[in-house]
Each structure stands twice: as C-alpha cells, then as structure tokens.
Amino acid sequence: MESLRLPLTQSPEYARTLRCLGVPLRQGFAGSARAPALSWLIQSRRLPVLGHVELLSRGPVARRAADLEDWLPLCRNRRRVPLLLNADGPEAPALRRAGFWPLITPATIALLPLGTDSAMRAAMHPKWRSHLNRLERQALRISRHPLAADHWLLDAEARQARARRYRSLPPGLLIAFAQTNPGKALIWEARHNGAPVAAIAVLRHGRMATWQIGVTLSEGRKRGAMTALLWEAMRWLAGHGHDLLDLGMLNSDDAPGLTRFKLRSGARAHRLGGTWLHLNALAPIARRLPPALAA
Using an 8 Å Cβ cutoff, are 21 and 173 in contact? Predict the structure, then answer.
C-alpha cells in the first residue's frame, strides 16, 4: 500500500500499533494488494450512549476521487454497527446521500510538501526563510534519536498538554508505535551549551510522516529552536523517501502563533471533512437534511 499516501491513522504502522495494544480493527482494500485503488483501516470502540461503534479516521484513502464512489458497502461491517467517520476525502453531499449524520464541523490541518532543499526553501514565507538563515549561524546542536520511553520530551509534552488544555496521542501509544515499528518514531532535539532547549517527535508511515509532539523550553524559544528542528526533520525525511509531512491541526483562534509558524514553513492548509455518524435508524432522516446542515 506504499503507492497510496496514507495518513497516520490509516497506515499499516498505526495498525500494527493498535494490534499491539489490543485494539480490535479491520483493514481492507479494493483493487490489487500491490497498488490498491482504495484502502481503509477501521477501529472498534465502545462509547457512551452509542455502545460499540466502528471508527474510520482520515479514510478511506483513494487513488482518485472516482474511486470513492460506493465505498461504504465495501467498508461496512456485516453487523451494521454505528460507523463514526472522521472524513478526509468523501464530500459532504455524498456523505449525506449515504445516510451520514453530521456531528462536528470540519477542522483544518497543515500539510507540508517535502522535496529538495531549494524547493522547500522557495516555498517558505520570506520571514520564515530569513529566520532560518539567521538560525544556521546560531550555536544550537541538533541531534536525532529513536523515540524512547525515558526521553524528557514525553513528560514535558504531557505537562504542556495539561497546561494548555489540548489532547494528543497518549505516551503509551507513542511508545508502542516505536516498539512495533523500529526506526519509524524519531526525536529531533536541540541543545544549547549542552542543555536541551527543544525537541519534536515525528512518526514515519509510508510516503507520509506526522509531526506528533513538540516542546520548546524558554531558552529554545529565545533562540528559535523549533524552526531549526523542523528544518532538519524536513531535510532528513525528504532524503528518506517521504514527500509529505503532516503538521497537525491549525487553530488561528487559540494558537495564532503556531498557525503562522506552520503555514510560513511552506505548508498548505487542508480542510478535513468533519465528523459524521452512520446509524441505521438515522440514515433516512440524514438523507433528507438540508444541504446547509451537512456542509
């Protein structure tokens, strides 16, 4: 399935991680196994009120838009349990016609194309590129390591998430990913005068990679360490077969500085398709929803 550009939650690496953690899942594809036209990974969850549901996150992934036609019967479980879809591909009108009920409006993520150094620099905002040029004369030492359970970044990220009230992948899942996919979970770390000042963790999966977590300490912010870390990660990933880096959600209301940082790096804003529920009892009503309620 390497021919498809699979986001983290649809990748074989993520599937191996979930199996290691005992999460029930189903995988499937349409077309040939070597070059599938359509691919999906579905998790089983138990939620309040709904009970047992299946979760399809950032999928299914298709080679062409036309390959997304009539995907639902291929992906559905025979027991017809509720299907929760975090859409990234199927369009709202098609989901409404298929009987999906809209739950959460679409979010936007930042996707950073990877390529040659010159191409990546050319795509940067001039201020980001100028900042990078200045950083290359700084006394920061950048190193790369396999993600390990005892690295300071994991605890620092957990504290940062609590303080800023956001949710990220649990440390246990990151550690399981690293253990089940050797060499696919990496940390880039910046040090100044021997002391750590910033670090990021990146998960590799096929043609794509995902910036999963990142923490900058006060000295790191002063020295712009996160820019240097991202640039080093971009160059290394581009040289090791990756052509797209997922930088995660954009939130210009709560984190305008982080949003500017991501977009000025050369990333483009990509709007996801929202969260939808397919429930047999609701499907006939969902099909008759006004388009404005299912956009």
Answer: yes
